[in-house]
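Hello forum,

I keep getting stuck at the same step: I have a sequence, I want structure tokens, and every attempt I make locally crashes halfway through. Rather than fight my setup again tonight, could one of you with a working pipeline run this one for me? It's a single chain of 297 residues.
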Amino acid sequence: MKRHQTAFWLAWVLLAHSLPVTAGAGDWHRTVSLRCSDCHTMHNSKGGQPMRYDLDLAPAPSLLRADGATALCLACHAGRGPSPTAPNVTVPSNWEPPGGGLPADLSDPLAHAHGLGPLAVIPPQGTAPMVMTCVACHDAHGNEGYRNLRTGPSGRGLPVAAPVVRQTVAASGSNPDQVYLRSNVTYVSGFSQWCIDCHDLITAEHVSGGTGLLASHPWDRTIGGGAATGATDLAAWMGPVTNRVPVQNALGLAPPNDTDQVFCLSCHKAHGSPNDAALLYADGLTMASTCQQCHNQ
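Reply #2:
Ran it on my machine without issues. Output:
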């Protein structure tokens, strides 16, 4: 290596190690705010002290600072640890945060959430068993997508793109209070197809011709489409709705709008909720408060 190249890389390494040792968060696990040392350690100790966030002396796989990807993510995203401003994803919710929250017992098969246990499970309305971890859905090293969501979360190699979501305020590495506001997010397209990559028994055939257990609520359908969407009430949706459920809008318009569409997250919380099937109850108590935003009775 030439002398000027050696000098450049030495300067870069010194700069990197002079930056504050605080973990990033959310959409900014990427580019300049992606720090290897937030998640990995070379020698498993510093000054005689363990580098793992749980202070365990044993080395972890892949030189991680926790015993696996999920434990590493929750070192910051459980309301504690080196990055207290990182979103807390461990409090099941009906409303805020938008993604909901995971249960206290991550391996509980009866929890109303995406279970993060060590064993492979078949997703509800799915066909392929999989071991769920945080990095099944989120790219640990960041990407250009919303919330660092991966393409093809099932891991089966199907051509499923990450969802398209617009944010008025982009992540800068220091503005989580703005980035994670519900009002900052407009869902545009692709979320339903992304969810169905794992829950693949929920298909268009079920919506159009299924009965009983094979019947599914329509998705990616415009509110106010009349009988085609189950007698929805556009006038009610356009009115003063309290705790308006998330919707998708292919034009990127903020709700309420006559082109808003119902999609998976209109009814379900991505991480989990206190309710069966991770359903969202808009008033915190009843499923009717969610349904009647579109089906005013």
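The longest helix spans residues 3-18. If your local run keeps crashing, start a new thread with the error log.
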